[in-house]
Design a protein that fits this description.
By secondary structure, the protein is of the alpha+beta class. It has helices at residues 42-64, 104-118, 120-125, and strands spanning 3-7, 15-19, 24-27, 68-80, 88-100, 130-139.
Amino acid sequence: MECTIDWMGAGGMAFVAETGSGHMLTMDGAPDGGGRNLAPRPMETVLAGTGGCTAYDVVLILKRGRHDVRGCQVKLKAERAETEPKVFTSIHMHFVVTGRGLKQEVVERAVALSHEKYCSASIMLGKTAAITTSVELVDVVEA
């Protein structure tokens, strides 16, 4: 995996990342750190990437199990250390999974598998942060 980060210039603290797959991602700092608040902070992108990683796993696990999953949302709330390095110290992930006839224990198992085995991002962040999860099911009722 590769990524190239370029500073966008002396007018602020914005950076553009080009990923190995050829996609662009812009990041910026807070105004109190010289940024102009034009894009997510780098640590916000770490948190978002972790949410995307685990959501991907959960959907894939449920689909492979032939469960009727229609939607998956992960709401993340994180705390960071007060002093440098300001690593994540706790992360809570609330999964809202929509589908038809989904069972709570099946979805909880998919979440657990992601965090124990498949999601590299959350497993890595788990080295500094206490990660907790919760699951909410929304059943689709078709007319």
